[in-house]
Specification:
Helix content is 0%, strand content 56%. It is built from no helices and 14 strands. The chain has strands at 9-14, 20-25, 30-35, 41-48, 55-63, 69-76, 82-90, 92-98, 101-107, 113-119, 128-136, 142-148, 161-163, 168-170. The protein starts with 8 loop residues before the first strand and ends with a strand.
């Protein structure tokens, strides 16, 4: 069996159950993960070593009994913990509410978020505006010229969350 590592990852550490514990990138940035007893990710800590002093951002994922993320909280370097997103479900993830803006998702058969619509309506006039769209190469890289604002949404390739400024989709 061969082992492969994502681009830019210099070192990976695992928990005894096989879940990823920590990623250390070639630029010394790190991402550490914490899981609940069902193996669902509930905590992510990203340390950005590209700035002085380094910046540590911890993200907590509040999950339901199925393991689906219901809300996301974030804290950066000792600042107060803040709600950054609420996820709305109707069978599967339907929308993400962040900063009083709701972004509805359209996904393909693989779970890739292809288009997001921002709810720009006032109380009397409903309106949706395309806020991002993305076509993907196999393995998750956005196709150049075939996307608009792919960084503007929390989830993307295979429904995975983007973490840090490494532009990598992580489970």
């Amino acid at each position: 069996m061969t082992e492969s590592q994502p681009d830019g990852v210099a070192q990976m550490a695992y928990y005894p159950n096989g879940l990823v514990k920590q990623l250390i990138f070639s630029n010394n940035d790190t991402i550490s993960y914490g899981y609940n007893e069902q193996g669902k990710k509930i905590k992510t800590t990203f340390v950005d070593m590209q700035v002085t002093p380094s910046i540590s951002t911890t993200t907590w994922h509040i999950v339901d009994a199925r393991g689906a993320v219901r809300s996301v909280y974030q804290q950066t370097d000792g600042n107060p913990i803040a709600l950054t997103a609420e996820i709305l479900y109707a069978g599967s993830r339907l929308a993400v509410r962040s900063n009083n803006l709701t972004n509805y998702e359209l996904t393909d058969h693989l779970g890739n978020v292809r288009v997001t619509f921002a709810d720009t309506s006032s109380t009397s006039t409903p309106a949706l505006m395309v806020s991002s769209w993305t076509d993907y190469y196999p393995f998750g890289s956005p196709m150049p010229g075939r996307n608009s604002n792919p960084e503007g949404h929390l989830f993307g390739y295979q429904g995975k969350e983007k973490v840090g400024n490494n532009s990598k989709w992580v489970a």
